[in-house]
Specification:
The chain is mostly helical. It contains nine helices and no strands. It folds into two domains: about 30 residues, no CATH class; about 110 residues, Cytochrome Bc1 Complex, Chain D, domain 2, CATH 1.10.760.
Length: about 160
């Protein structure tokens, strides 16, 4: 094998330098890509959301949020809701049905819940969850799990913590 000429060595050295520099750029780029991917994910933990869902929602909406005879399919509904709308619907949805009484009136809320539980005056409807500490604390986690299911990013069953 013949030794490389000076121009050939210069070309090889330049190419090697560019290749190494390209690797260094590639090495540094995953961080912004991961940040962008995380920014596009809904806020919250899908695992914690799944746990709250199983505890508070699954009895009516089904184990995987696909609906039952008593409650609608949440996966279809979540395809059109953003996090802010979801939080509003879950925490405050039924305050307007207190028929003119202040939403903060505990007696009105209790009477409404009692009527719903006994199925008087109206069919059973989803209650507002704002006074339920576990739902209130994890409503964005619940959104993360449901929106992941609705988008097909999360399968059925328990997600990884």
């Amino acid at each position: 094998m013949r030794p490389l000429t000076a121009p050939a060595r210069l070309i090889v050295t330049t190419l090697a330098t560019l290749l190494i520099a390209g690797c260094a750029v590639e090495w540094e780029n995953p961080k912004p890509a991961r940040q962008l991917a995380q920014a596009q994910q809904p806020p919250g933990s899908a695992y914690l959301g799944w746990r709250v869902y199983q505890d508070r929602c699954a009895a009516c909406h089904g184990l995987d949020a696909q609906g039952t005879a008593n409650a609608p399919n949440l996966l279809r509904r979540l395809q059109t809701l953003g996090p802010r709308e979801f939080v509003s619907l879950v925490l405050y949805r039924y305050d307007s049905s207190l028929q003119g009484e202040p939403a903060a009136t505990r007696g009105s809320r209790e009477a409404q819940v009692e009527a719903l539980m006994e199925r008087r005056d109206q069919p059973l409807a989803m209650p507002a969850w704002r006074d339920e500490p576990r739902v209130n604390a994890h409503v964005l986690d619940l959104y993360a799990w449901l929106s992941g299911r609705a988008e097909g990013k999360i399968g059925t069953g328990r997600p990884l913590p």
